[in-house]
Design goal:
The protein has a domain of about 50 residues. Helix 1 runs antiparallel to helix 2. The protein has two helices and no strands. It is mainly α and about 70 residues long. The radius of gyration is 15 Å and the shape is flat. This is Spo0E like sporulation regulatory protein. It comes from Heliobacterium mobile (Heliobacillus mobilis).
Length: about 70
């Protein structure tokens, strides 16, 4: 692994912890946005490691958040 790989993996780890903190604080919109960013980082990492031989992870098309709760409550 080179420095770029370590940097991407570190970013993924930090983002996962951040998403968990937001879920525990009842901010699911923020957690979902961070999860999507983690998916993007994983796609980037696997593309660079396999040089495009592995299909990209498909993002789920999630509907907008429809709960009556507002972020930060």
């Amino acid at each position: 692994m080179n420095a770029d790989d370590n940097d991407i993996l570190r970013q993924i780890q930090v983002k996962r912890k951040e998403a968990l903190r937001h879920m525990l604080a009842r901010r699911p919109q923020k957690a979902v946005a961070i999860s999507r960013e983690v998916d993007r980082l994983l796609n980037e990492y696997y593309r660079t490691k396999t040089k495009g031989l592995v299909p990209t992870i498909q993002e789920e098309h999630r509907p907008p958040w429809k709960s009556g709760e507002k972020e930060g409550k």
